[in-house]
Amino acid sequence: MPRSQRRRPALAHPEPEEFDLLDVLHALSDPTRMTIVQTLRAAPERACGTFPVDVAPSTLTHHFRVLREAGVIRQREDGNRRWTALRSEDLETRFPGLLDAIVTAYESRLSRRR
Amino acid sequence: MPRSQRRRPALAHPEPEEFDLLDVLHALSDPTRMTIVQTLRAAPERACGTFPVDVAPSTLTHHFRVLREAGVIRQREDGNRRWTALRSEDLETRFPGLLDAIVTAYESRLSRRR
User: Fold this and answer.
1) CB contact under 8 A, B25 and A102
2) Each residue's pLDDT tens digit in chain B (114 positions)?
3) pTM for this predicted structure
4) With helix as H, strand as E and coil as C, how does B53-69 read?
5) Which positions in chain B have a beta carbon within 8 angstroms of at least one beta carbon in chain A?
6) Predicted-complex ipTM score
């Protein structure tokens, strides 16, 4: 079967009640993954090749999987493109105030370095 | 020189302005380390053997080091005992609201499991 017709397995996404805080903290403890999260806060949905990170595609796929399995992002296929969005509302429902506190802390860190 | 007279190296503690948010998130992304933090929130200072965690001493030493190097805890020697305290004020100064948001999220998770 040609590659283009092979069916890719559906992407797994946990339900909010399945989110594990320790997985979320681990997912956010990496600079590439934090850059992905910051980028998604400014845009509702982005195609996978458009993130301002300088890593190999396989590494980026790994980072997306860690974020997706922790519940931080949602990804969907659309033809040959994969779109990524932040699960802000699900995270807010499950862990109120958490994502804001973390991203605010991260951005205050960056502004001190300027 | 007998072991008891050997001088142990001083414990390194970062200054608040050196805290790295990603190190703090990594330090808190482990269940044993989160239990240490929760235990310290209830007591100003604890001796090292008194934490309700079920891990080998060498593993516990590793967990304390990760927390200490991230700035989450402070440790001091007093004779043969090592005392551990949470650096709540330093963390609050550096990352306002962060530790509370994380521990609250962690405890809401535990209460859902009951």
Assistant:
1) yes
2) 455 555 666 788 999 999 999 999 999 999 999 999 999 999 889 998 889 999 999 999 999 999 999 999 999 999 889 999 999 999 999 999 999 999 999 998 666 554
3) 0.88
4) CCCCHHHHHHHHHHHHH
5) 17, 20-23, 25-26, 28-31, 34, 95-98, 101-102, 104-106, 108-109, 112
6) 0.87
